[in-house]
Amino acid sequence: MKKIILLVFSGLISLTTHSQKSISSKLGDVSKEELEMMAYENDTIAGALILKEHGNYYLNKKRNYRKTTDYYFKVKILKKKGVDESIVKIRYYDEEKIHDIKGITYNLLESGKVQKKHLLEKDVYYKDLGNKWKEAVFTMPDIKEGSVIEYVYSVTSPYSAIDDWKFQSDIPKLKSDFTASILGNWQYNVRILGFLKLKRNDQKIQHDCIDVPGLSSGACVNLSYGMDTIPAFEEEDYMLSPDNYKAKLSFELALYKSPRGR
Q1: Helix (H, G, I), strand (E, B) or coil at 18
Q2: For a tag on the chain, would you pick the N or C end, based on fewer CB atoms within 10 A?
Q3: How does DSSP classify residue 231?
């Protein structure tokens, strides 16, 4: 049910980093074939299909070197029941900051032209849920059967925790990826939960990814995990905690060393 990967790696934290932000997925990657799709052959009753999703975790130089995760989602609305996928709710905690929320709805017109409708900043609402939890909520515009929606957002956090990446959900997915660049003095246990197999599982050490002015340079470990053709999760009667059976990545902080190696 699980595979455990232990990252044991040390190095120096830095005031200057070579950011991983450039590999974050961007808006504007929708094809005519995706707009013409009327059904998903692997799950013909699916109301919606995630065509692509990507989370990218890195140290953000522009935000005082705090930890940022950029999120990207591209979703096909196949049936009327899938329209609910256009309502997006993002929970975040206390001192975390959510920013750079953007979205586009694409519709194929009878003329063959592609119509784009952008999410407006004024249509994003923020709620206080209590107990230090907050929520950003928005609904993608001009949704109908056949629409493709893209949206992105970023969460910057002062905390050491890396949120779980859920490969599996209640709708099927074509492609799901999580990438991360983790400074060498942070060590995490990474667990892959569920019964599905990774299509992409890569770890590389990047030397000189951080610079310490007047001292030295340090390294990072760059992680890349991904799955393709992911079925929708179906809850069964015997499951006491269904979330434990879904395919996902889980990060647990194992060890932290100070910049001086102590």
Answers
A1: coil
A2: C
A3: P
